Recover the amino acids of this structure.
């Protein structure tokens, strides 16, 4: 069965949306993500550009202003919902992991 | 030591790993990629160093853009922010370079990258192949087959027809291989990206498809060379000239920096003009170059010729016979060989003629088609009294000729010409004589022309 677009978010998608909780220039996201994750996650410039375009198309972010070619974005309600859904999914994954791994250790 | 060089590597447009590796190796050898030239890739001499190259695909670019669009400029700024310096582009493909030790790749998500490549290839190359090359070539083949069905023998024995047919088949096969190669890579790459998030190099698929393409190309070239090297040489030279002319015209139009729409229209018009010139040139050259054998022909009654036809007038009519005029020509292709002889002779003050053609049918499936064309020849006569007669081939006894089937041209047994059609294994002979042949003459024809 084909995966519904953005039904689950990759790590890069997740952090891009997270960065856009507050208004942010697209190009600055490239620096914010490694800073946020202590260098653990990096987003390629091309991937970032493409994802921003896709998020715009899906209505998950909206452009707030444009200064020349520098465009700023912010999360929309739809984007926030996708982020929260992914957060919940990750939470369940963590709980399932703790339950299973904790149960095996207890045996 | 030279400071610049041009290379001619051959990569599929979506073989980014192959291109990146190639550029990195060149840098290690002391050659820095500069730009895509009109023909070839330009490099300049540098100190050998380890550099990282990245090939990325940007969607909203057209071959008819003469300057970078604002979106493309933004894209390049994104990459520059990450330490990737833009070098050059070839339509949707962008080439970047980084001197950092471990730069973050421009495309860090394999699935998104593959989706970008797919959009680029679908629009540019695949649409060109699926919606232009394949239909065009199929249409060309259809025209060739239609022409052949109307005039089977003259079409199929023509070198140009044979060459055009082989070209068309080769182009069709190469186009199909191109499409298959891409889709096999695309499906495999998407599967791998979903499984482990990595980007599939197309090396293995590339090797198989390029080998297939080389085999197709090499086989067709061999067949064409066996036919006639002049045909091949003229064909390749004319196509090479067309390609060079097209590139020069296109680059000139792009240098004028018109907008996309104007560039597109100019390129379209130029394409029609160039193709028209090419067709006219090929037609002119084909008329000038005689691909048939030498023609020996004279109107002189007294000339003797040292020709060695398959069947001479002397063999047919006797050693006292003198040839007055002689003409022969051969048309041969991979499908048919058509050998024609026209002879006027004289013996004991009697005018004699010996005209024959031998059609060698190289593919059995074509035999009946060729025979049907012969048999379809008809002439209708209307007389003053209103009666009509139809001259055509009718069946006669084939055994005297040593043939499988024999036909004679005329209205009936009592009213017929000295023109016969003889069917042998893989051959059809049409022969015209001065008079009714003897049984010895018929046997001679079967022995000499039928085998």
């Amino acid at each position: 069965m084909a995966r519904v677009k953005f039904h689950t978010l990759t790590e890069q998608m997740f952090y891009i949306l997270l960065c856009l909780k507050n208004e942010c220039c697209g190009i600055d996201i490239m620096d914010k993500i490694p800073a946020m994750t202590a260098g653990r996650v990096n987003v390629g410039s091309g991937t970032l550009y493409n994802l921003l375009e896709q998020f715009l198309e899906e209505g998950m972010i909206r452009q707030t202003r444009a200064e020349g070619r520098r465009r700023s974005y912010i999360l929309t309600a739809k984007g926030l919902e996708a982020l929260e859904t992914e957060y919940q999914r990750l939470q369940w994954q963590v709980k399932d992991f703790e339950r299973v791994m904790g149960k095996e250790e207890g045996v | 030591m030279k400071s610049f060089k041009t290379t001619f590597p051959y990569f599929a447009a979506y073989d980014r790993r192959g291109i990146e590796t190639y550029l990195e190796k060149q840098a290690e050898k002391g050659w820095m990629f500069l730009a895509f030239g009109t023909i070839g890739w330009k490099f300049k001499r540098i100190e050998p160093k380890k550099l990282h190259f990245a090939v990325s695909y940007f969607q909203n670019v057209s071959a008819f853009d003469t300057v970078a669009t604002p979106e493309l400029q933004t894209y390049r700024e994104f990459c520059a922010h990450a330490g990737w310096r833009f070098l050059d582009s070839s339509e949707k493909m962008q080439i970047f370079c980084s001197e950092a030790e471990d730069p973050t790749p421009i495309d860090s998500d394999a699935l998104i990258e593959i989706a970008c490549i797919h959009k680029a290839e679908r629009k540019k190359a695949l649409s060109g192949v699926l919606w232009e090359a394949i239909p065009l070539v199929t249409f060309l083949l259809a025209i060739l087959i239609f022409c052949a069905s109307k005039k089977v023998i003259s079409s199929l024995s023509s070198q140009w027809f044979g060459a055009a047919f082989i070209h068309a088949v080769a182009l069709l096969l190469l186009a199909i291989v191109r499409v298959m190669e891409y889709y096999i890579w695309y499906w495999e790459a998407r599967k791998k990206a979903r499984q482990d998030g990595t980007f599939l190099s197309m090396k293995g698929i590339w090797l198989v498809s390029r080998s297939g393409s080389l085999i197709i190309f090499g086989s067709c070239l061999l067949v064409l060379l066996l036919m006639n090297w002049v045909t091949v040489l003229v064909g390749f030279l004319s196509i090479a000239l067309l390609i060079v002319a097209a590139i020069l015209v296109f680059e000139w139009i792009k240098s004028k920096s018109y907008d996309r729409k104007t560039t597109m229209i100019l390129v379209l018009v130029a394409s029609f003009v160039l193709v028209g010139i090419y067709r006219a040139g090929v037609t002119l050259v084909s008329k000038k170059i005689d691909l048939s054998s030498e023609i020996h022909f004279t109107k002189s009654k007294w000339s003797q010729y040292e020709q060695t036809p398959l069947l001479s007038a002397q063999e047919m009519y006797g050693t006292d016979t003198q040839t007055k005029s002689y003409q022969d020509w051969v048309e041969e292709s991979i499908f048919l060989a058509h050998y024609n002889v026209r002879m006027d002779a004289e013996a004991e003050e009697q005018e004699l003629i010996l005209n024959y053609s031998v059609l060698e049918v190289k593919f059995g499936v074509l035999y009946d088609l060729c025979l049907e064309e012969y048999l379809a020849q008809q002439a209708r006569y209307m007389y003053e009294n209103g009666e009509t007669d139809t001259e055509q081939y009718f069946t006669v006894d084939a055994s005297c000729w040593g043939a499988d089937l024999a036909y004679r041209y005329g209205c009936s047994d009592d009213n017929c010409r000295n023109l016969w059609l003889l069917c042998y294994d893989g051959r059809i002979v049409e022969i015209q004589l001065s008079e009714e042949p003897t049984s010895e003459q018929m046997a001679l024809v079967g022995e000499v022309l039928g085998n």
In short: The first helix of chain A runs from residue 11 to 19.
